[in-house]
Amino acid sequence: MTTIVTDNCNGCRFTDCVTVCPVACFHADETMLYIDNNVCIQCSACIPLCPVHAIYADDDIPEDQAHWIEINAERSQALPVVTEKQDALPGAEARKAALGY
Amino acid sequence: MDAFLGTERNPLQVAVVGSGPSGFYAAEALLKSGQAVRVDMIERLPAPYGLVRYGVAPDHPKLKEAILAYQVIAQLPHFSLLANVNVGRDIEVDELRAHYHAIVFACGAEADRRLGVPGEDLAGSHTATEFVAWYNGHPDYRERSFDLSAEVAVVIGQGNVAADVCRILAKSVDELRATDIAQHALDALAASRVREIHLIGRRGPAQAKFTNKELKELGELACCDTQVDPRDLALNAESLAELQSKANYISAKNVEILRDLAARALGGRPRRLLFRFLESPLELVGAGRLEELVLVRNRLEGSPFQQSAHSTGETARLRCGLLFRSIGYAGVPIPGCPFDARQGIFPTRDGRLVDATDAVIPGLYAAGWIKRGPSGIIGTNRADSVATVKSLLADVPSLPSGAKAGSAGLAPLLAQRAVRAVSLDDWRVIDAHEVARGEPLGKPREKFTRVAEMLGCLDGGAVSQR
C-alpha cells in the first residue's frame, strides 16, 4: 500500500494535510511535501484535505504521476518531518486557480 | 507567592481524560509546547488507545499502527498514564480540578444514536457500537451475544463503521483468524449463517460518507459478491452538480466505484452484499424478535451539498433476522461537566467548556469526538486536539497559578477507594501477556476481554501466560 504526494503540490505546499496526519509521515523541502510510506498507516485522512488533490493512494495514482512513488520514497528519507500547518508558498493561490481548484 | 505557572518551579498540571487518539494528540501538543507541563492521562479501562484498540476493525492492522505513534508520545518526559480510573465514579471532576490546573476531556462518543422507530429494541436489533466493541474484545461488551443464525442481515448507515460491520459479517473466519479479533467473536462468527447483507442508507450514492478505500474494499471481498442496483445510480441534477465540483473528488470517486460494481456480474460467492440507497427504516416488526424491516423510499430535497432525505411514502418490506444501526454516536455525560444532550457533546467554544449561560468554565477543555461529535477519522482528531491545546496554553496566564499536586494528589484518594491505577509500566506487562497469548494462535495478540484478567497480570497475579 502506498500513498504519495504528486506534482500538484509542487509550488503550492498548502500543508493542510500534515495537520491530520496521525503518525507524522510528511516531509518537506522548499517546493513540496513527500510521504514516508514506512511510517504512513494508509488512513487517507490527508487525501480530502489537499486543496489541489495532490495526494493519491494505490491504484488511484494516475499513470503519469507514478514516478512520484520513487521520489516520495527517496526525498522523505532525506528531509525533515513537518507536523504543523505552514504558510503556503508564494503563488500557491494562483497555482491552485490555474489547476482548476 | 508561587512561581509563574508553566515554569519548572510551578509546572502546568494537566489531566487528559481519555486515552484514544484525541487524548494522545492533546498530550503531545501539551508536552511539546515548550512550557513546563505535566500530563496525566486518565483512562477508565486498564488498557489505553481507545477506539484504535476497540474501534478500528481487526482486519485493518495497518490503521492500528497509529498506536506506534502513541507509544512514542507516551515516552515523552512528564507523561504519565493512570488507567483503570473512571472519572465521575472513582474520581470526581471537582477532585481533579483541585489537583490540576487544567483538564482536557477527550473521552469520545461511547453511546449510539437511536433510529427512533417502533421495534428498535426487538431482539436481533443492535447498534454497530455494540457489535464493533464486542468483536474487538471491549470488556463492557464481553457478555453480549449476537444471534447470527439469521440468513439476512441489515446494516443501517453509509459510513466507515457500517462498512466495517459489513466486512466482518461478509468475511470467512479464515480471513479473520490471524487478526487480533477477540476469540469469542471468532467462535460466534464461525457459526454464522448470514448469507445476505443489506447495507442501507437514507441518502444517495453521491452523499455516502465512505472513504474511497473502505468502499473499494467492499467490492473486493473473497467470499462475498457485491451488488449495486444501477437504478440507484441514476442521480438527480443536484447530486450531479455536487459531483462536478472539483473539490468533491472523494464523492465522485465513490460514485465511480459504485458504477463499476453495478456493471459487474455476480461471481457465485457464498455471501452477498447489497447496497441500497435512498431508503429509511420505518419499523422493525417481529413477535419478540426481529423478523421483518419496513422501509420507506426517500427522495432528496434541497440545493447541492444541502440535500436531505424526505419520505416518498412508498414502502417496502424486507425479511431479516439481524440488524445493526450505525447512524452516529453520542457522548456520555460526566457529573460535573456541562452536556449538550441533543448533540451528545460537551458544549465548547474554541475547545473551552461553556456552561448553560455560554460562559467559559475556567480550566476545563474538550477535544475530539466529545467536542465536535463523531466525525472524521483518526488523524482528524490531531488537528482538533492541537486547536484545543492552543486555547489552553493561551489561558495559562489567567489560570489560578497556585501549585497543583497532580497525580500525587490523586494517589491517596485512589488508595482510599481501592482503585488500582494502571501505569504505563503496568500496561506494558499486560500488553506483553496479550502478545504472548496471541503467538500460538498466529494472532498479533489475544486481548484480555475482562478487566479482572488484565489486572491479574499485575501484582504477581495468578493469570497464566498461556
Automatic annotation (TrEMBL), chain A:
The 4Fe-4S ferredoxin-type domain covers which part of the protein? 1-30, 31-60
Which key words are in the record?
A: 3Fe-4S, 4Fe-4S, Electron transport, Iron, Iron-sulfur, Metal-binding, Repeat, Transport
Pfam families on file: DUF3470, Fer4
Its needed co-factors are:
[3Fe-4S] cluster; [4Fe-4S] cluster
Give an example GO molecular function: 3 iron, 4 sulfur cluster binding
Domain of life of the native organism:
Bacteria
Purpose? Ferredoxins are iron-sulfur proteins that transfer electrons in a wide variety of metabolic reactions.
Q: Any idea what this protein is called?
A: Ferredoxin
Q: What organism does the UniProt record list as the source?
A: Candidatus Methylophosphatis roskildensis
Automatic annotation (TrEMBL), chain B:
Keywords for this protein: FAD, Flavoprotein, NADP, Oxidoreductase
Where, by residue number, does FAD bind?
Answer: S22, E43, L51, V87, W369, G376, I377, I378
Report domain FAD/NAD(P)-binding positions: 13-186
Listed GO molecular functions? Answer: oxidoreductase activity
Q: Where does NADP(+) bind?
A: Q158, G159, N160, V161, R202, R203, E214, G376
User: Is the keyword rRNA-binding in the record?
Assistant: no
The answer on whether this UniProt entry bears the keyword Oxidoreductase reads: yes
Identify the cofactor(s): FAD
Q: Which Gene3D superfamilies does the entry mention?
A: FAD/NAD(P)-binding domain, NAD(P)-binding Rossmann-like Domain
InterPro entries in the record: FAD/NAD-bd_sf, FAD/NAD-binding_dom, Ferredox_Rdtase, Ferredox_Rdtase_adrenod
Range of residues in the leader sequence? none
Q: Matching Pfam families, A to Z?
A: Pyr_redox_2 (PF07992)
| Protein family membership | Belongs to the ferredoxin--NADP reductase type 1 family.
What's the protein called, per UniProt? FAD-dependent oxidoreductase
Organism field:
Candidatus Methylophosphatis roskildensis
What high-level taxonomic lineage is stated for the organism? Bacteria, Pseudomonadati, Pseudomonadota, Betaproteobacteria, Nitrosomonadales
